[in-house]
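Researcher: Next entry: Sorting nexin 17 (Cyclopterus lumpus).
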Amino acid sequence: MHFSIPETEVRSGENGSTYVAYNIHVNGVLHCRVRYSQLLGLHEQIKKEYGSNVVPAFPPKKIFTLTPAEVEQRREQLEKYMQAVLWVWIL
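Model: Predicted structure:
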């Protein structure tokens, strides 16, 4: 099984604000679109279940709006995180 986040999308929220959605692919097929906050929630659940010493580090939250370069950097970090979580789960 292979997780990747090959692209992001800027989407509109319910209140008209915009956010970045991360397109998660499993074995090359789009599986879902998620927000950073949803992945952070997943990270917290995994830490609770398996302990924080087993779970890889999660990309830090930023206070201000991300620049396009920062969105790309976060996308890369989240992709590496998802792949690392997969390896922890397999082992």
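Model: Note for the record: The chain has a mean pLDDT of 91.
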